[in-house]
Amino acid sequence: MLTIEVERHAQGEDYFKPWIEDYEDGSGCRFHFHYDDISDLGAIAFAELFTLQAIRWRPRPPGAAPGPRIPITMERRAIMEGDDLVAVDDHAEYIAYTVRADLISARGAGHITRRQSERSPWWERTPAVRSITGECA
After folding, report:
1. Quick check: 123 and 67 in contact, CB under 8 A?
2. 133 Cβ contact partners less than 8 Å away, ≥ 6 residues apart
3. What are the φ and ψ backbone dihedral angles of 116, each rounded to 5 degrees?
4. Helix or strand or coil: residue 108?
5. Strand partners, 32
6. Distance between terminal CA atoms of the chain?
7. Digits of tens for pLDDT over the chain (137 positions)?
8. What is the pTM of this model?
């Protein structure tokens, strides 16, 4: 399974657009955000969300043709239902995040979803895996 980390860089650094660093061993990646673009809680929430998504997405096999570029959006809301921080509508054709607005800036959300969309042709969504145990009637 891929491991995804989110790093929030220290306050005072010159502004940079969020970017994604792939681990050389293929075990995952790290999302880099400027301090002003993501909160501490946002970094934790997105690391967990992106790691869970890695269960359904994987790099295309070596030599495989790139797939389509899929749109990825992030809607920021002041109030989410219940205790939700982030919700995701994840499909092979698109990914739509709905997030609590205090977790990520509009600028950060726009930059990171564009980066994800740019990378999407080199990833593929895997089928859902279901297992049934015990006797079925």
Report:
1. yes
2. none
3. -60, -45
4. helix
5. 7, 19
6. 34
7. 678 999 999 877 788 889 999 999 888 899 999 999 999 999 999 999 988 888 888 888 889 999 999 999 999 999 998 889 999 998 889 999 999 999 999 999 999 999 999 999 999 988 766 555 555 44
8. 0.83
Q: What is the token pair recorded at 28?
A: 């995952």
Report phi then psi at 45, rounded to 5: -65, -45
Q: How far is CA 54 from CA 7, 86, 127, 128, in A?
A: 17, 16, 12, 12
Work out whether the CA dihedral 23, 105, 15, 35 comes out positive or negative. Answer: negative
By CB neighbour count within 10 A (0-12 exposed, 13-18 middle, 19+ buried), where does 50 fall?
Answer: buried
State how far the Cα of 102 lies from the Cα of 100, in Å rounded to an integer: 6
> Rounded to an integer, what distance in angstroms lies between the CA atom of residue 64 and that of residue 132?
32
The Cα–Cα gap between 111 and 25 comes to 26
